[in-house]
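--- STAGE predict ---
source: upstream dedup step, 1 unique chain passed
mode: sequence only
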Amino acid sequence: MKRKIITILLSIFTSMIVLIGCQKNDNNDNNDNDQPLYCQNEILPKIDCITKIKKLLDCTNVYFFDCDFSEFEDITITDVSYNISISGYLIKNRSNTEVLDLNESADIKFVTNYKIMTNSNCFGFSIISSVMQPKVYRTDLSGNTTKTPSQIYDKFTFTSIDNISIDQITTFSYTNNSITQPIKVPNNFYPYDLIPNAASQIKIFNGHTMYDEPPIKIITHYKNESEKPDDETFIKSLAYYFKKNGKYIEH
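--- STAGE serialize ---
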């Protein structure tokens, strides 16, 4: 009888040890910080792009610069598409919904793509609007490094289009395909592929610091390097039209 009781007690004790070990392993798994980077570039209607941005940022309103090009005399817009470019790490909020972790590197860009007819060789252009400022590390002259967390644009980030200025025009050859990475268009949207293409980029930014992510980038699309005009008249006209007619809008 005593042997039977001892055997039962040993069996229970062994089971408890195994259970505790499993719980420890589960806890270790839950505390694992090696989360995969979430990168997505998705084509959606404009309202769906904005809805998804709000969900990922866990906020009720988002702000970014936007512009109506329908009155721009130098072009005829034949089609428009939208996409959002997302990068960051996902965590669960209090509602158990997956959102971007703003304590880590995070970035979202809202992209409007225009298919156009014009006198130039440009077959389209894209407006890349940031909705947030990614986390950056800044090192001062003494070697001290500080971290600026990822920050969502709000009504205090900018007040109007007057807060931004037009930077110099930078031309990229077809070898620099990172310029068009935030852009994604439907199949057969443009008559030519974006890669490889020559692209001229204008940076428009508020100039708070040299580390700021430009809130707006305008990129024109050409068939190839030889199709791109020598002068910068067209891309300048796009930039100054945006500067005059663009708005910092709450969505």
